[in-house]
């Protein structure tokens, strides 16, 4: 088709099918403390966000070091449940006070936020 651009699919793109309301990412009884123990035993240093244990998905090597991975939507849910806030208030607080403060610290990469595709 002349003049029309065809959309090319990215064969590497993945769709994340995790819903924090429907699925458990960690085995029963597994806590962030267990993850911390694993990271310590492996000699891995990573920035942790206090109060968002339920939103932790795991960790990855970001290329500049290891980083904890969090569910953005689950972080919002934690704030809404903890403070009895509506969705808009949780986003405002999270974006300014948490995301705004996520910077590399002492050479460690900032935590990674994953935006879940199937958030209700």
Give average pLDDT, whole number: 75
Shape summary: globular
Number of beta-strand segments: 3
Distance between the termini: 38 Å
**Biggest beta sheet summary:** 3 strands, mixed
How many alpha or pi helices?
3
Strand order of the largest sheet: 1-2-3
- Low-confidence blocks of residues: 3-24
Could you say which structural class the secondary elements and strand pairing correspond to?
alpha+beta
Q: Fraction of residues in helices?
A: 25-40%
Tell me about this structure.
- With 120 residues, this protein is an alpha+beta fold.
- The protein has a domain at 51-114.
- The protein is 28% helix and 12% strand.
- It has three helices and three strands.
- The chain has helices at residues 32-41, 72-83, 87-98; strands at 56-61, 66-71, 112-114.
- A hairpin with a 4-residue loop joins strand 1 and strand 2.
- Helix 2 (72-83) packs across helix 3 (87-98).
- The protein is globular, with a radius of gyration of 17 Å.
- The model is unreliable at 3-24 (pLDDT under 50).
């Amino acid at each position: 088709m002349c003049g029309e651009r065809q959309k090319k699919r990215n064969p590497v793109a993945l769709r994340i099918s995790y819903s924090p309301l429907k699925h458990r990412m960690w085995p029963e009884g597994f806590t962030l403390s267990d993850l911390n123990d694993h990271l310590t035993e492996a000699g891995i240093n990573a920035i942790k966000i206090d109060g968002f244990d339920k939103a932790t998905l795991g960790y990855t090597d970001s290329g500049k070091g290891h980083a904890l991975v969090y569910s953005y939507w689950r972080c919002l849910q934690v704030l809404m449940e903890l403070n009895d806030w509506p969705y808009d208030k949780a986003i405002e607080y999270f974006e300014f006070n948490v995301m705004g403060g996520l910077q590399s610290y002492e050479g460690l990469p900032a935590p990674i936020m994953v935006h879940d595709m199937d958030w209700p």
